[in-house]
Amino acid sequence: MFALVESGSITKMLNGNRGITIGDNQYPAAIFTVAWTEAERNAIGIYSVEIDSSNKKEEAWYSNTGITYAYDSSANKVKGTYGTAIAKAHADTLYTDDDVSKDVYPDDYTYASMRGERRNTWVAGDVAIKGLKTLLIEEVKQRAEEVLSKTDWYVTRKADTGEAIPSAIATHRAAVRTKQASMETSITNASDTPALQTLFTYTTNSDTGAITRPIGEIPTLE
User: Fold this and answer.
1) Average pLDDT, whole number, for the chain?
2) Rounded to the nearest 10 degrees, what angle do helices 132-149 and 193-200 cross at?
3) How many structural domains are present in the chain?
4) Which of 7, 33, 106, 174 to pair with 17, CA 20 to 30 A apart?
5) Is 68 in the same domain as 111?
C-alpha cells in the first residue's frame, strides 16, 4: 500500500495497481514496482505505508481498532497504526430492566413472535450477548460430545443386548467427562479475558518439543 502526500498531508491512499496523475504529470503503475526506487517515489510525493502492528492483538480475544494513517515528516514516512485493542467481554451481557421497559427483545423472541410461535416469557437477567466464557464452555461441550459419539454405540448395544461395555471404553468415556468438567471449571474460574487467552495458548516445550496448552485437551482413543 502507498499514500500520496501533498503539502505534508495524506491526500489519497493507493493500492499500487494502477497509474496516477499528479498535477500535470501522469505516471504508470510501474512506479509502484522495483522499476522505481523509494527515493524516486518520495520525490513526487508517494510513500510506502509502514504498518505498526504492536497494538494489534488476537481477534479471538480482542476487538482491534481500524488503522490510522499519518505522515511522519521527521522520519519522512507514512505510518499506519492500530489504536488500543479492547478485550472481548469474558462474561455474558444480560438484559436489564431498562431493556424491558424499552421493549428490547432477544432476536429469537422477535422471530418466534413473527412466526406465530410460542416462547417462554423473558425477563431482565436473560442473556443478551454471550461472553467468551459461555462460548468456550459450549465449544468444550461440543468437543466432548464429538469424542463420546464415537463410542456411543457400545452404550446402545448394552441397552439393546445387555452386552457389557469393554472396560477400556468405559474408562475412556469417564475420562472424557472428567476432563470436560475440569476444563469448564478452569474457564469459569478465569478472572478476565487475558486469563482465558492464557488457558488456550499453545506453547512448545523446549526440551521435549511437546505442544500443549494449560487447559489441556479432551482425551481421545488411541
Assistant:
1) 91
2) 30
3) 3
4) 7
5) no
- Residue 45, by phi and psi: left (phi above 0), alpha (psi -120 to 50) or beta? left
65 Cβ partners below 8 Å, 6+ apart? 55, 82, 83, 84, 85, 86
State the burial class of residue 136 (Cβ atoms within 10 Å of its Cβ: 0-12, 13-18, 19+). buried
Which residue range forms the structural domain that includes residue 188?
Answer: 130-222
User: Model-level pTM?
Assistant: 0.79
Q: Where are the beta strands (DSSP E) in the chain?
A: 2-6, 9-14, 20-22, 25-27, 46-52, 62-63, 67-72, 77-82, 86-87, 93-94, 127-129, 203-204, 211-212
Residues 146, 121 share a domain: no
- Tens digits of per-residue pLDDT, 146-199? 999 999 999 999 999 999 999 999 999 999 999 999 999 999 999 999 999 999
pLDDT per residue as tens digits for the range 111-132 = 444 444 545 556 677 788 899 9
